[in-house]
Amino acid sequence: MQYRTLGRSGLIVSALSLGTMQFGKAMNMGGLDQEATTAMIKFALDHGINFIDTADVYSRGESETLVGEAIKGIREELVIATKMRLPMSDTNFNRSGAHRVNILRGVESSLRRLQTDYIDLYQVHGWDSTTPLEETLRTLDDLVRQGKVRYIGLSNYLAWQAAIALGIQERLGLEPFVTAQMYYSLVGRDLEHDWLAFAEYTGMGILVWSALAGGFLTGKYDRGNPPPAGTRFAEAGQFVPFDAERGYRVIDALRQVANRHGVSPARVALAWTLSRPAISSVIIAARTHHHLEDNILAADLQLTPEDFAILNTASDPGTPYPKWMVLQLDQAEDPRPRVLNPERFADGGPWRDLRGTPFKG
Length: 361
Prior knowledge:
single chain, 361 residues, alpha/beta, TIM Barrel, eight-stranded parallel barrel
């Protein structure tokens, strides 16, 4: 297993983390009960995973409850992340959103279900256009100062939203977001348009969800074996949208690379994601130990430059404006000095100079 820091923090997490949507029955994502949950978590720990990601909304609290029971006695060995923001009630409007009341209620509820007195990483599950951002950020800062939360993160924000949040946190002296949990895969490379460069510049760590595009990149389906009617892949990307034809080209490329290494397409897809910049951890989930073990072995798979060329070509989504213009300008001759405000970058962080070269301080 590889280990990385959680964004710019000093906390060490496994490069692959255990997702928990399959724990509990309400979401129809696996329906694992307490016995199966406990066994799955133990299996993950035995294979080097020390990072578990859950959310209050997963089976409306059942996933957190199952995780909390499973980690009794080993809590200190783990990094536990959870999330809040999405509706926890069909009738009480205030049990949704990133306002002070719901954040405080949410963290107390998660602490009880997880049977712990602190959460390592507490994440906002999405942008709240109703609540003033300062209210959200001050409340999260309070939780860190109270010791109930160690670090904070965001999920599913646009890059400009995250930039505004970091700016407010810096201006007001609040605890900053250290991670962004985002969707990223070989058939969903939209994150490369803005987010990856933004994360590198600010030092935020990306936590990747659905790196296998909901299972599509396991290679189970192809042009000659389309998904049966009624399955979640009957129409390409019902949950994580992608172009079907490009998706099948990616599957062909995955199989080609997988055959070169004698491994599964899923393992190749995960290894590709792990290789990308700014990634702190890739969240994996499975219903069986066999599939989980195969996913975990992706951390040991070394792809070659030829492998990357095959995968990148097949999955290339094109370059949107204004990124193509930025790239053209970045490659043009520029007479200005290569170092920009060296005092600001003296901490050796992942900052870049005018031409995109990592600044070494």
